[in-house]
Fold this protein.
Amino acid sequence: MHEWALAEAVVSTVSQIAEREGLRRVTEVKLKVGELQQIEMEILRFALSELKRSSLLEDTEFIIETEKAELTCRVCGHKWFFKRIEIDENAAEAIHFIPEIAHVYIRCPRCGSPDFEVTRGRGVWLESIKGAKQDD
Amino acid sequence: MDAEYGLKALRVRSKMTDPRISVIEGRLKKVNSILAVSSGKGGVGKSLIASTLSLALASKGYEVGLFDIDFTNPSTHIILNAEGISPTEENGVVPPKIHGLKYMSIIYYSGKRVSPLRGVDMSNALIELLAITRWGSIDFLVIDMPPGISDAILDLIRLVKKTSFLMVTTSSKLAFETVRKLTSLLLELRVPVIGVIENMKMRESSFIQEQVKGMGLRFLGEIPFDYSLEEAIGDVDKLLKTLFAQKVEELAEKIISQPLRN
């Protein structure tokens, strides 16, 4: 996912949850970012800081952790980690936009199968949100 | 008082914390009508109808997008001869235009390589593309669906609430049976079905028409088997001169003349 589109999705989701839970403001958001998508952290941080303005998230601190992308072969059970440097530029860019494209370019290093599962570190998800309630 | 929503609580609501889901509706906000060209069976002409219908609507002055979500077997790019184009990045991705259509397909990322995807992967790829693609303001978004009653159908019903379904069958009882099942699911879930079109008709028979009307659905017409069609694949000018295209244009007229759900 493009970093700006991702940041927009994060801000939108946090806002929805905050509204649903009656939060007056959101103080902290913990995000996990999987390495498969090769998110440019600087761009993501900048996009978040721009998009959070004039919203419930104005004072929010974003804590972003990365997670290694672990792939597990469904055929032979082999587990390995995605490494950006092991694939060519075009493949890496395609996986950046659609992580499932990994099945087009990557094969199990042990048995050669494209039938693997991304067991960790696929995309981006919200881990926790901290905030102040509307009615104290 | 601070309220903390920790890992455990959010995992319980994991669908709510996939950030991509929340932007999909907004991405399609300025899309007036979404038409999913569907069938339970493969090989009934969905991609040709979706492509030609898009071209027909565009030729009438509408802004049209074509979205090929048959991720394992995309084919609209071959019909449109869509080579040498790619989306541009602008707070997401903006589909390039070809033959007047805003066109999106997995082929920009997979090229001509095989894309062996399981259901969960197809679902994730669809969510990703719905979340990042900026269609902008368009009248129609035509979706070329994969065959089957599986992830793509369920995801559209779940995530793109304003989708209307256009069903394609051949004259075969075998194809119609899948259309009947898919339609019954859509009707049960109160999802709009525009109607059914009978494609590749080779002999006189009112079987499909009667079945469709018996289900309380609109029969949108029949398209005779067109022997010239294969040669027109990849040549849009030629395609638009076929009998097939004339029939699809009549279908476009019917779609324009009836109100669709927004």
